[in-house]
Design goal:
The protein is α+β, with helices and mostly antiparallel strands. The protein has a single domain, classed as SecB-like (Bacterial Protein-export protein SecB), CATH 3.10.420.10. Helices cover 31% and strands 34% of the residues. It has 3 helices and 7 strands. Strand 3 and strand 4 form a beta hairpin. Helix 1 crosses helix 2. InterPro entries: SecB-like_sf (IPR035958).
């Protein structure tokens, strides 16, 4: 750890910004050293607590903290997300838990400070995992016999999606059903 000495005319806002710039630079360097090698489901638990169809009133998403395994040349992150579908009385109708492992190969280089690893995981791991989580959630809810739940589009400046949709199936018209 480097310790900074106090100087009479130090602008603390500028000092903080410089360290943020340095962190961004180190995270960018780490990003250049990583190569995605695998994304896989480690755990998938999908449970319907009744018989569909359900009258879903709310969808709650809980993302647990990411866990990191750093054993060069392996860099892996575990992402855990639980989605709960609730009715008007806030009773749980169904729940889907997804745990993904995201594996990277890490090029040789200097040791990685913990704050750089944390910043990388915070700003990049969910962005990598998002399409896999979205597909797994949509597939799991369909397999439960429910209307599919779809995670919204993720913007690079968002840590998590702002939108979750339940796709309502249109009932088949009787004249189409007989054809």
């Amino acid at each position: 750890m480097h310790r900074r000495q106090a100087v009479n005319s130090v602008n603390t806002d500028q000092a903080v910004e410089t360290s943020q710039d340095d962190l961004r630079e180190q995270v960018a360097h780490l990003h250049g050293r990583l190569h995605l090698t695998d994304v896989r489901v480690q755990r998938l638990r999908a449970e319907s607590l009744g018989d569909p169809p359900f009258d879903v009133n709310s969808i709650q998403i809980h993302s647990g903290p990411c866990e990191v395994l750093l054993e060069p040349p392996r860099f892996a992150a575990r992402v855990n997300q639980t989605v709960t579908l609730r009715d008007l009385d806030e009773q749980t109708l169904a729940e889907v838990e997804i745990v993904l492992i995201i594996d990277y190969a890490l090029d040789e280089g200097p040791d990685l400070p913990e704050d750089v690893v944390s910043a990388y995981v915070e700003h990049n791991t969910y962005f990598t995992a998002h399409p896999y989580l979205r597909e797994t959630l949509q597939n799991a809810t369909l397999r439960l016999g429910l209307e599919p739940v779809i995670l919204g589009v993720l913007d690079r400046n968002q840590p998590r999606p702002h939108e979750v949709m339940l796709v309502r199936r249109a009932p088949a018209r009787s004249d189409e059903a007989s054809q």
